[in-house]
Structures are given as C-alpha cells and as structure tokens.
Amino acid sequence: MNNISESASILIREIQSRLDTGGIDTRELPEIFNSIFEGIEGEGVQVNYYPSIKKTGCCELAYIISLKRSPFVKNTGSIHDMHNRHIDCRKGIETLIQHVQACRGITKNLIFITADWDFNAYNEWKNILAEINSEINLEIYLLSGKSASRIEVGL
Q: What is the distance between the alpha carbons of residues 11 and 32, in angstroms, rounded to a whole number?
C-alpha cells in the first residue's frame, strides 16, 4: 500500500470512528487532515480538500469528502448551518473534475470518499473520470457504516 492509499485508509477509519460520536462537522476536517499527515508524511504537507472554506493554491494531493445525506454528518441542530456544508456525491464528482482541470500538471493524487453514492452522476461523468484516472492516481471509496469499498474507475 502506498502512502496515498495509506492516508486514505486512515482518513476512512477516522470518519467511521466519528459515527460513534455523532458524525463529522466540515469545520473538523482541517484538524483531521493535520493529524493524518503529521503521522504519515511529516509536517508541511500541502493538501487540497473539499468541502473547505480555506482557499489554497493547487497541491499534489487532493481529497474530496462527500458525506451529505449520510449518518456521518454531525447534526449541529440547524439544517441551515452555514459552516457545516457537506456535499453530495454529484457535487463531489463535479468538484473533482473542476479541481483536476484547474490544477492539471500539479495534482498527482486525488482521493474521493463518499457515503452518498450517486450512480447517475457517476454514469454521467464516467468517461471523464476514466480519462482523469489515466492521468493521475485517482482513488474512489464508498463508505457504508464501518466498511469501505474501493470503486474502480473505468469504462
């Protein structure tokens, strides 16, 4: 297992562990990413992650976390919480494509984790995802409770 797959595995376990404590608020993502990358690749690792209100330049590694409409979302008591903005699978796939197009030649690894699989969105974008997968290391994972499956991207 390479470092990227290893970091994805650690992140998936962290997301799954949050089920027992009420889920994840998107504002917790920076803390989660910091703890993962300090342990794996040392300090100073730059990473793009979505959803995020933090704007950074393109990085070699990007994560897209799609948990909307899943038990992994922390209930903050308000359906209109402007700061806890999880995205659905369709928005995640669209964000993935936009990120790769904007960061072509810079982003080398992209991990997409979803607990909200949208077959129609995947089917609509599968040709572009296959093209992206031929250019960079693209890993897609589907969460279901305490299990996770890697989805192979292809035609």
A: 8
Bond before 30 cis per omega within 30 degrees? no
How many domains, in total, are found in the chain?
Answer: 1
User: Token pair for residue 4?
Assistant: 């990227």
d(CA 60, CA 103): 9
pLDDT at 117 exceeding the cut of 90: yes
Q: Considering only CA atoms, which of 37, 88, 96, 33 is closest in space to residue 64? A: 96
pLDDT one-digit tens code per residue, 2-59: 677 888 898 899 889 888 888 888 888 888 877 777 655 444 567 888 988 777 889 9
Q: How far apart are CA 112 and CA 126, in angstroms?
A: 14
Q: Which residue has the higher pLDDT, 146 or 135?
A: 135
- Using the CB atoms, write b or e for 27-49: b if 16+ within 10 Å: eebeebbeebbeeeeeeebebbb
Neighbours of 72 (CB within 10 A): 23
Q: Which domain holds residue 100?
A: 3-151
Report the Cα 112 to chain-centroid distance in Å: 4
Q: Which two tokens stand for residue 103?
A: 């960061």
